[in-house]
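Aim 2 progress update. The chain analyzed this quarter is reproduced below.
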Amino acid sequence: MGFLRGLCIVLALVIALTVVAIAWAVSVCFRRATAYYAKYEVMRFPRALVSDAYFSMKAGDLIFFVAATHGFTNSMLTGEFFSHGGVIVEHAGALYLSEALGNSAVAKGPAGDIRAAPFSRLSPLLSRLKGYCGAAYWVALDATLSPDQKAALWGAAQTRHPYPSALQALAGFLGFRTESRHCFQHVAWMLDQAGLAPDAPKKLEDEGFLGTARAVLALPGASLRNGARYSSPKYLLYDLDASG
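Predicted structure tokens:
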């Protein structure tokens, strides 16, 4: 009887702690959601047609995204408006987007959504903008990269690393480094490789799991090591036909 009583007490404590943990998580999420909606009640950006902007886009420019679905989870965690990001890279005169994705839908196929594997990936820029389920914003660099910087970005884009699993994300929250990188960690790492980080003692990638997102999203207007700056985001309107 004593053993069963002790077991019941332990189980009751586990259940109570679980309920408290769930209630705490719900409370934190509610507070963050309320703060997020209060902070970003109205957001206005200059607009650009993709057909006009594409020929001005170049290696080193950034694309920030606001997802139509599921992106709020990312934004709520970071407290930032943008939920995803990637870096434009160039190869043989063509532009690509380098980004890290979870198991996300990247295009519409004949049998339904086409989903990405949870790794960093390269996509032709135009097809990625066309297929994105949400809003895309162009963040232009006010300088042209040197051939060495372009090569560094393209080389970094060839390195494939996994998107964080649930356990790796938890480790990241706790301050541990893993081989995985979420989207903004990927952008930070790419920019560090090409010398496009701000003039600061720390690398962009060393800002931490959530800090990296905030550091990348703070780049517009910040002075980089080479004196260049990123412009304010422009909301992209995709106006090309299906063949574009």
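Residues 192 and 210 are 17 Å apart (CA to CA). Residues 1-39 form one domain. These observations will guide the mutagenesis experiments scheduled for the next reporting period.
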